[in-house]
Write a structure and sequence with these properties.
This protein has one helix and nine strands, in the order H-E-E-E-E-E-E-E-E-E. By secondary structure, the chain is mostly beta strands. The N and C termini lie far apart (54 Å).
Length: 173
């Protein structure tokens, strides 16, 4: 019996459009402190609130890099002392992306919640997209090394300015 072999090169398949684009932002737990029906607002800071001012900006995109227009983003995080408001809507609010998929969140740098690294929670969804629940993290935060939920792909780009911190993060749905 003879075995035939071929020297033909393997056929390369083209990547599907989804595989050829941006990677989806990974999902994470919403944690125990999510509260629905938050007020619509882009500024979570309140007069007299303790904490370092923080401005987070970015975009919500599809895998092909196109903007997700009108996506809802619902943000929440701990206060300067690492405490979540579980009665009202302090440091909680939702907003919608603009015609270029941009969002802008004014808030404070959250304090350290016990047994976690510094983070901000967000749930988002665009029309005809998946619903994503995830968290955003600070680079060079010592607790990142042992926080079991932390993921390096969710690090924001953070810089200091004279008034506080400015951060950027783009989400891919």
């Amino acid at each position: 019996m003879t075995t035939q072999t071929t020297d033909k090169p393997a056929t390369m398949l083209l990547l599907t459009p989804q595989c050829a684009g941006l990677d989806d932002t990974i999902g994470q737990t919403e944690g125990p402190f999510y509260t629905p029906n938050t007020p619509e607002r882009t500024n979570l800071r309140e007069d007299g609130m303790a904490g370092t001012p923080l401005l987070v900006t970015g975009r919500v995109l599809n895998n092909d890099g196109s903007p997700v227009i009108g996506a809802i983003l619902d943000f929440w995080h701990a206060d300067n002392d690492g405490v979540y408001d579980n009665v009202g809507y302090r440091l909680r609010g939702h907003q919608f992306t603009d015609a270029e998929g941009n969002y802008r969140l004014e808030t404070i740098v959250p304090g350290l919640y016990p047994d976690r690294t510094r983070h901000i929670h967000v749930i988002m969804q665009g029309q005809n997209t998946r619903c994503l629940t995830t968290q955003m993290y600070w680079p060079s935060e010592p607790r990142n090394l042992w926080d079991e939920i932390f993921h390096p792909s969710l690090l924001m780009q953070v810089t200091e300015n004279g008034d506080g911190q400015v951060a950027g993060f783009d989400f891919v749905l």
